[in-house]
Specification:
single chain, alpha/beta, 3-stranded mixed beta sheet, 15 strands, 36% helix
């Protein structure tokens, strides 16, 4: 084992100036319910920034992944719309395919839990920090992100101890860390990696009835091989949960170190799966997981999806054995969920001793909670020092981002607003300022 220190660094995304509600994500109930509403990009970005700042002040390492430049104009050529200048092309595209028009402006890269699947070097036979950028093939607007994300990580994470794999080129959809869990005694110790899939392109598995599953088993099998993961398990997501709006595993379960916090409807054949997970963990560590299962009777699936309880972040507090739950304010406002959290905090066997509620309404209305907004990367000192240091969050960056957002973001935005040259010009300046700030 290396003598270097290891840290779990949260790489948070920030909603861009084109944060919209367009109902683009099939199976994401909040996204569908918000379709067509006027969004508030400035509020969205400031809410996300305050989440980053809250975690940073706890003494936990934070970094920032800036929003991707929009519109994604290369896609206009795919649709063979070339009728003059950009604004003319955009107007034509708006009339011909309004959903795809919304897609090229979507700020969905803010949900960095879908950016990549990450295996720390301590878990891998090749002793490298391995990232495979998610291909996000299940949704058109998200698939546009993947190669921009790849270029970002390739340029900003350039180091011999880090491997950045390009998005999988196969037909197998991959949704990244939103379906990936890691269990360990501490972040710097070898762990068990759990890969949760929703369907297989080869095996005849139980199907969903209402919504299409997004994560393929074959994609994760390929990633396990690429990363040379020492200890891994592939687990089948419960189709019933997907049909209830659990489009990613991080909507129904989450983990931190040796704690597994999950709902009874998380997996298909749940009891057997939990036994397999706990047994595999015991073989690695000689210890059992701390298993906290929420029953359907305590909190039903509908309330799980509405409040995003399991999309909370669980944080290991520095210089302490305690953990903290960073939950969306919807959990506090739900009588059922609020009651459950209070009971959980009072349980001395549960390492979660504190809760922090955050207002992330703008992200939540599109179906993304605290955990969706961050990519967890366990890094050692050398790896952390090798990346673009301008991404590392500190008080100075907080003030600069707050100023940038307050100055250049629209207060409100609808799809039709994006047919205004004045709006487009202001958005372009905003992206220029991001590139200057992070030296991209």
């Amino acid at each position: 084992m290396s003598d270097e220190n290891y840290y779990e660094v949260n790489f948070d995304g920030i909603p861009g100036p084109t944060h919209l509600y367009s109902g683009l994500a099939h199976g994401n109930l909040a996204s569908f319910d918000s379709d067509g509403q006027v969004s508030n990009p400035k509020q969205a970005a400031l809410q996300s920034l305050e989440k980053i700042y809250t975690v940073y002040k706890l003494g936990i390492k934070q970094a920032v992944i800036p929003p991707q430049r929009k519109p994604h104009i290369i896609h206009l050529k795919t649709f063979e719309i070339e009728k003059g200048d950009l604004l003319t092309n955009l107007k034509a595209f708006y009339e011909e395919d309004i959903k795809s028009f919304a897609g090229i402006f979507s700020s969905s890269s803010m949900w960095t839990a879908n950016a990549a699947t990450v295996s720390p070097s301590i878990d891998c036979h090749n002793a490298k920090l391995n990232l495979t950028i998610a291909n996000l093939k299940s949704n058109f607007h998200r698939s546009l992100e993947c190669f921009v994300t790849y270029e970002f990580f390739r340029k900003n994470f350039s180091a011999t101890g880090i491997t950045i794999n390009s998005p999988l080129a196969t037909i197998n959809p991959d949704e990244g860390a939103a379906n990936h869990l890691r269990f360990c005694e501490s972040h710097g110790q070898e762990g068990l990696e759990l890969f949760v899939f929703g369907f297989s392109n080869v095996e005849d598995l139980q199907k969903t009835f209402k919504y299409k599953a997004r994560q393929s088993k074959e994609a994760f099998a390929e990633i396990i091989k690429k990363h040379e993961v020492k200890n891994s398990l592939l687990c089948f997501q419960n189709p019933e949960a997907i049909d209830a709006g659990v489009f990613h595993n991080d909507v129904i379960s989450t983990a931190n170190e040796n704690l597994f916090f999950f709902h009874e409807k998380t997996f298909y054949n749940q009891n057997k799966t939990i036994e397999e997970i706990n047994s595999a963990y015991y073989k690695i560590t000689g210890k059992h997981l701390c298993l906290v299962e929420v029953s359907q009777k305590e909190i039903n699936l509908s309330e799980v999806v509405r409040t995003y309880l399991f999309n909370s972040q669980i944080l290991s507090l520095p210089n302490s054995d305690a953990m903290m739950l960073v939950a969306p304010i919807e959990c506090q406002r739900s009588e059922v969920v609020n009651h459950y959290i209070k009971k959980m905090l009072a349980d001395y066997k549960n390492p979660i001793e504190k809760v922090q509620y955050l207002d992330l309404t703008q992200s939540m209305k599109n179906g993304g909670g605290p955990a969706c907004l961050r990519l967890r990367i366990v890094m050692n000192d050398s790896q952390l020092q090798a990346i673009n240091q301008k991404l590392i969050f500190n008080e100075d960056l907080y003030q600069k981002l707050k100023q940038l957002i307050s100055t250049y973001y629209p207060d409100s935005l609808s799809l039709k607003d994006l047919l205004s040259q004045k709006t487009l010009d202001k958005i372009e300046i905003c992206f220029d300022k991001y590139e200057e700030l992070f030296a991209l």
